[in-house]
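Notes from the 1:1 (GR / supervisor)

We went over the backlog. Supervisor wanted to see one worked example end to end before approving the batch request, so GR pasted a single chain during the call. The sequence is below; no edits were made to it. Supervisor asked that the structure be written out right there so they could see what the output format looks like.
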Amino acid sequence: IWHKLIPLPRNMNIHFVKSTECWIYFIYKGTSGTFNNEGRVLHDYLESSVTPSSEKKFGCHPTQKPLKILNELILTLTNPNDIVLDPFMGSGSTCVSALLNDRRYIGIELNEEYYSIALKRITNITELKK
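Structure output shown during the call:
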């Protein structure tokens, strides 16, 4: 679970404030998969604020995830050169995190506008890494 320390406001008199999002990962061939905890005790939740404006300006997606959260998940659950799949790519934050952390990625997005944004972000990261 991702616990958002400062969630977006909502009418708290008629709904719970949505301060968490769930994540899921799959393991291919095996029972435990990669777990790079470096000897640290890791809990099944991560905490951070919502996506900072310094990142939001590159993505402009309403449910954009912060790279801080994605980096931690990708570094813990994958090894360099592994493939990260994001079937709902949005503005491409997961693919950007994969690239920054020397992982390969597959991103799928139906919305052409967000696909174009993601492609631009990914291309910029690829150019920076050259």
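Supervisor's comment: The chain has a mean pLDDT of 90.
Batch request approved.
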